[in-house]
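QA checklist item 7 of 12: single-chain prediction sanity check.
[x] sequence parsed
[x] length recorded as 120
[x] structure emitted
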Amino acid sequence: QVQLVESGGGLVQAGGSLRLTCAASGLIFNSYVMGWFRQAPGKEREFVSAIRWSGGSTDYADFVKGRFTISRGTPKNPVYLQMNMLKPEDTAVYYCAVKRNERVKEYEYWGQGTQVTVSA
């Protein structure tokens, strides 16, 4: 069973930085895709970024391009999200997710989320 646990959230002032980590267990796929999503109060969950374990190619939502960087880590901590130049509108619960490969449409496993709060 795949388990994901996010960490690194917190309270930061606008313009500041945070680094989110996704710890994983039970990952046995060779070509999995790991993603970060977020959900702000009263809003739907939205895609933030993704990285392909094989090859390392990345995708970003337009609203984080140039500010956030997704990167691969170790099999135990497979993905990080470096968030710079944070804005109050980045306030949300951030979720790590994984799907076994690019052909799978929906992400299959999700973490519990970590709260990121950006003050003005």
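[x] summary fact logged: The mean pLDDT is 94.
[ ] second reviewer sign-off
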